[in-house]
Design brief:
Keywords: Membrane, Transmembrane, Transmembrane helix. The protein is mainly alpha-helical and 672 residues long. It has 27 helices and 5 strands.
């Protein structure tokens, strides 16, 4: 029979069982009291494991922390201790410090193993995190130890911890408020993004070589990218860059300080001169932070961001988007996108080509980019390639990218060709039930506010919105009426759409306007020649056309808005009456705030109707007994009276049926 040999873990547990908490306290006191008991150091280190009982781990941790903190400024660095020469081997003090340094590195690694172990006690993990951050504070000769902090973030990002783990919350809530920790966090995230991107490229090559057809398991890189995104979103923005701004620092003698001699000069210290530590001005701190912030975010956007699960709207009634590819990462976009400055205009123009397939960006990135990233970048135009490629995708991705792209266009002089064509393509009935529809409608109203828009473009948007109003909920119809109201008021040249009986009235005028906008005058004037033969009852507007210039909107009319006057929802029928005013007189009219209607729903409409006061309440009664179900005025041209021949045949059939029924009854009575 083979004898079962005890494992190393069982032997280690038996060895630990020999010691009690009082024994560990004694070992710790001996280690702190004299160097003669330095051999207690490896023994105490053996208790710093995830499998050790929390009380024993905590007792050993406190003793070791008290031992290492005073010695850290005197210990050599890890690189020096690993490559010391033969001349220094004879120095016993150097050998001792080198040995202590190696034990300190083992101690840090053991603490990292505990802090990323989800099975460990949460209170113990918090103490371990605080201990690591104390080492980060003074571990580099009294300065910030960026290497230990990078190892901490590296282990967190590459671990199996979930995003909602308590460790990520503790790190963000307790330490991200310090400006120097934020600074080194951006530096670490830049390095981590590069390493994750390199691993992703190697994984892609490995998948291409795999021809077995077996489904690959989901890569842990997706979880790492999610944790990077989560931690980036938890870093608070820079408070300000004025001289009165004050920043909290984890290490006051850290990266944002400089030495100053007695004469007030900064630089190298001369003999006989005393130096003072001076904190950099808030403006210089903000400049450094912006640079690292920009590098961290650009490195993050280089990654192939994993697909977020887009929730379906209205109880799975709308399948919002099914996209499996976007352009490459941020720098991959630069390979297929070129930028050039327009001379004499100070604008930046983007010329895009066909994107290469890759993964869709994170939902959080596109939604919050214009609020938490763009205002703090050193050069926001560096994001134009990423945003324009996202905007070209269409669907919900374009809706989320529109906010950031609008900020670049209005505040940073970005010029994007075919912007309005892409915006026109986003107008679909499903957009009126989207999660971010409120912000989209407000941006749509702002984009159409310029009086320099050509008439055909304003008419195309106006007509497309009116056509969509026939297929959207009442809340969407209210938004459309508000948008059409503002368009008619801002652009008097399209007021002909309000009432236009046939296409011959404005054919000549619109032909010249649209042909001026198009480079090819013959193609632009060809639809006008066909309009003479078009019947007045046929709408020349082509709602399937994606180019606003070719929709023939100026030859159409807003007959769809007239149907809204008879809408079943009273607020819609009341609100549409505002379009009956003469909107060309700007002094007597005002623009409608789209914000008041952009987030409407059935619940808001019902609530407004409940709170509304009415003078006359409609009652469900008739002054005279109705003689028919529908009045003849509702069906003009229809007659519901039966003809004479049909009526006689019907009467004959009914009489025969009655005779047949009476005959059956008589038979039943006779048999009974």
């Amino acid at each position: 029979m083979a004898s079962s040999m005890p494992s190393k873990k069982q032997k280690k547990n038996k060895k630990h069982d020999k010691y009690s908490l009082s024994d560990l306290k004694t070992l710790g006191h001996q280690l702190l009291s004299s160097r003669a008991h330095v051999n207690n150091l490896p023994l105490l280190l053996s208790f710093i494991t995830p499998s050790t009982r929390p009380k024993y781990t905590l007792e050993s941790l406190l003793s070791l922390q008290s031992f290492f903190i005073p010695l850290l400024p005197q210990l050599p660095s890890s690189t020096v201790s690993s490559s010391f020469t033969s001349d220094s081997q004879g120095d016993p003090e150097f050998i001792y410090r080198t040995w202590v340094r190696s034990k300190f590195d083992d101690f840090v690694q053991s603490l990292l193993d505990i802090v990323i172990c989800s099975q460990s006690d949460d209170s113990l993990r918090e103490v371990v995190l605080d201990t690591l951050m104390e080492f980060v504070k003074v571990g580099n000769g009294g300065k910030f130890h960026s290497a230990i902090y990078y190892r901490l973030l590296h282990n967190i990002v590459h671990s199996s911890l979930e995003i909602d783990d308590i460790l990520l919350e503790l790190l963000a809530s307790k330490y991200f408020k310090y400006i120097d920790i934020r600074y080194f966090t951006y530096i670490s995230f830049e390095k981590l993004s590069r390493s994750i991107g390199a691993n992703d490229i190697s994984d892609d090559r490995r998948e291409r070589l795999d021809t077995t057809g077996v489904n690959q398991p989901e890569s842990s890189l997706d979880l790492s990218v999610h944790k990077l995104s989560h931690l980036l979103s938890r870093i608070p923005p820079l408070e300000g860059s004025d001289d009165k701004a004050e920043y909290d620092m984890w290490n006051p003698a850290g990266i944002f300080t400089e030495k100053e001699n007695d004469k007030g000069h900064t630089g190298k210290q001369r003999k006989g001169e005393s130096t003072n530590i001076k904190v950099l001005s808030p403006a210089n701190i903000a400049k450094k932070m912006k640079l690292k912030f920009t590098k961290a975010w650009i490195s993050f956007l280089r990654l192939t961001l994993p697909v977020d699960v887009y929730k379906e709207v209205n109880n799975n009634s709308i399948d919002w988007i099914s996209i499996s590819c976007i352009g490459t990462g941020f720098w991959g976009l630069l390979e297929t996108t070129s930028l050039h400055h327009l001379r004499g205009r100070g604008k930046v123009c983007v010329q895009t080509t066909v994107p290469r397939p890759h993964c869709v960006g994170l939902h959080w990135v596109l939604v919050n980019l214009h609020q938490v990233v763009i205002p703090y970048l050193s050069n926001p135009l560096m994001l134009c390639d990423f945003l324009t490629r996202s905007y070209d995708i269409g669907g919900v991705v374009s809706v989320m990218a529109l906010s950031s792209l609008f900020v670049l266009m209005t505040q940073h002089s970005l010029e994007y060709p075919n912007f309005y064509e892409k915006l026109y393509a986003l107008l679909e009935p499903s957009i009126f039930m989207a999660k971010h529809r409120a912000k989209f409608f407000q941006l749509l109203d702002s984009c159409l506010k310029s009086p320099l828009l050509p008439a055909y473009l304003a008419a195309a948007f106006c007509k497309k919105l009116s056509r969509i109003s026939l297929a959207v909920p009442p809340s969407g119809a209210l938004v459309i009426i508000a948008l059409i109201h503002n368009l008619l008021r801002r652009h008097p040249s399209i007021n002909c759409l309000v009432h236009q009986e046939d296409g011959n009235e404005t054919t000549k005028d619109t032909t010249g306007a649209e042909s001026g906008a198009d480079d090819d005058s013959t193609e632009a004037s060809s639809p006008s020649r066909e309009m003479s033969s078009v019947k007045p009852s046929i709408d020349p507007f082509d709602d399937k056309q994606t180019d606003p210039l070719k929709t023939n909107a100026m030859r159409s009319s807003l007959w769809e808005v007239d149907t809204l006057r008879h809408h079943y929802c009273p607020p819609v029928s009341r609100f549409v009456l505002s379009l009956e005013n003469d909107l060309t007189v700007r002094a007597k009219t005002t623009e409608v705030s789209v914000k008041d209607f952009s987030s409407g729903s059935y619940a808001t409409i019902f609530g407004d109707e409940i709170r509304r006061r009415v003078k006359q309440v409609p009652l469900a009664f008739y002054t005279a007994t109705p003689t028919m179900l529908f009045p003849e005025s509702d069906f003009l041209g229809w007659s519901f009276k039966m003809k004479d021949k049909d009526s006689t045949t019907v009467l004959d059939n009914t009489s025969k049926e009655n005779d047949h029924i009476s005959a059956k009854r008589s038979r039943v009575e006779e048999t009974s």
